[in-house]
Every structure is written in structure tokens, then in C-alpha cells.
Amino acid sequence: MPRISAASNAAQRAETQNRILTAFGELLFTHGLPGLTMTDVARHARIGRTAVYNYYADIEELLIAYALDETERFLVDLRESLDSLENPVERLALYVRAQVEDLSRRHLPPGPAMGAVLSPASFAKLAVHVGELSVLLQGILREGMAQGYLPDADIAQLAQLIHGTLSSSAARGDGAGDGTGQDSAAEARIRRTVLFIQLGAGARFDDAGSPVRISG
User: Fold this and answer.
1) How much is the pLDDT for 176?
2) Long-range contacts: 145-149, Cβ < 8 Å, 24+?
3) What is the pLDDT, as a whole number, of residue 15?
4) Cβ(88)–Cβ(216) under 8 Å?
5) Which of these ranges, 9-18, 57-66, 115-124, 170-179, has the smallest mean pLDDT?
6) Within 10 Å of residue 93's Cβ, how many Cβ atoms?
7) Which spans in the chain are helix H?
8) 113 pLDDT higher than 60
């Protein structure tokens, strides 16, 4: 019998774990969190229920693992995209757009709902990752103020207001569109949200729609 190398065993474990997380995410999208069981996840992933328990003790642990994995992927992609832009107002637009699209697509429960279903320790783990998003946004706002594109303000409070707006404006379930008028409607909604937040932060634009300095 051929021996299984450590590398191939690790790859198999990673593949199984990915199947579990993918199945969980798809079930969140189609059915939501209430009533979701480990048996449902195992069945959807086409693996035994015992195999799921080998990776995650319960739905709470699986939820936090999925949320952390998705947030980390989002952060990596977002940072890479932001690095391609220099103007802080344009960086703010990209941040807002990415957040609205992500919130509409992932169907994770919003922060307060997550706090209701997770233990304090698990919610604290997620809060650390989510906090990285706030730090990223605060950095964009700080650059905008330093360069004269945004008026001085309480950066932490402004970031909190922006995230609150994003959570309430994300139309969950409408992110993908259906190839017809839904796509254009979703795009129009995103553009309105982007402009609303830019203007709310104090950004101003010239007649061509380019950001202009308001000071400095």
C-alpha cells in the first residue's frame, strides 16, 4: 500500500476544510443561519457528519471560522486594489463599493446579530478582524484630511458612521443581479451610496467629477 506523505495529507485536510466552509457559505446564502445544523453542512459538502466535527465542534465554531476566512480574503483583495489608487477620495469610493458588494454577496449576519449567536470569546475573535477594516478606513480618511481633500473631523466617529451606513444600505440578495435590469439597478444603488458617503465625509468635486482639494 502506498504511503501517504505529510504534504498530501495536509492538502487533503485543506481541501476538506475548504469544502466544509464553501458548503456552509452556500447554505448561509440560500437558507440563512437560523436552524442550520452540522448535518446540513455535511450533507451539502457531501462528506460524513463525523468529518465535519473533526474540524469544527459546532455551528458557532464553524460560523466564526467562515467569517474570519471570508474577512481575511476580503482584506487581502481590498488592500491590493487600494494600492492601485493614490487619491484618498477615490480610495474611499473603492472602499465603499467593495464593502457594499461584499455585504450584499456574503450574507453573513450583521454585527449585532453575530453578537447574539456567538459567545463573547468567539465574537472577540471576529471583532479583531473586523477592526482591521476600521483601521483601513480610518487610514483613508486620515490621508484625505492630511492632503486637504476632506475637512478635519473625528476620524474614529466618522468611520463608525460610514460603516453604519454601509450595513444599512447593503441590499442582501441583490448583489449578483440577474443579467437584466437588476444589475443596472444594483449598480445605481452602489453609486448613490458611494457618492452619499463621499459627500458626507466632506469631499467635493469639479464639473468633471474629479475630487478637488478644499484646503491646503
Assistant:
1) 45
2) 147/88, 147/213, 147/216, 148/213, 148/214, 148/215, 148/216, 149/87, 149/88, 149/89, 149/203, 149/211, 149/212, 149/213, 149/214
3) 92
4) no
5) 170-179
6) 22
7) 6-31, 38-45, 49-55, 59-82, 88-106, 111-117, 120-146, 155-169, 181-200
8) no
